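**User:**
Make up any protein.

**Assistant:**
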Amino acid sequence: MEASNSNLLENWANYVILVSYVFFAVALLIVLVHEIRIMMTANEKDRYDYVNHHEIKYFWYAIIAFIAGFSLFLTTVVMPLIEVDREIKLFVGLFLMAVFVIISYMVLSNLVQTLYPRFLESRLVRIRNKVRISSAGNRMRKLSSEEGSVHLDAGQLAEHKSDIHSIEYDVWLDEKTGEKRIEKYMTYEHAEKCDECGYYTLRIDREEVLKQPGDKETGILVEHYQCHYCNHREAKEVVIASLSSNVVGATG
């Protein structure tokens, strides 16, 4: 039994480094599968929605797997440099591993929270503005807000004009065949730049209507923002269009 424990302690570094390679492979596989799914999504709007709702989740899975692999690998590098009794060698290794996990998680989580949203927003903008191809194979033109409003129905116009949970519509038109595509975007879900820390980690935490709009009177909406990096909070007042203006816009 003692010989078996001795062999385990002597060979633990080999086991640990093999496991670290497995975690590195898992992290790489998560990223590859995610990117392949994006490339296999032909429709740009579906691709946009997939990236917007799933990329940060899969990116975090990859980060966690990388942290596990990195911590295990670093432990095997540092342990030979520390002279300890064989009886406590395993416990020291476990302690170092826990320390490396905590440190790497704190560093990488801060990087993800502060830098990654900007990269994600840039990627979403590229996908949203990528030229669409109609069913006839023609390049479609993205209409301006004024041009596109003509193609929206009453419900879509009301959503577009509403300042509560801002919603935008992109209208793409094939000018040769008349084919059009209307794409809906939830712009309130995206992070904004925080004036306090400068990172793109400011998101709407909650909204409240201070004054309901009337038929001819505008209302007031307060958007409460919170920065997920520095916890900075701020509020912005937004004017809600009167009900009659929405009706007129919908019928016009």
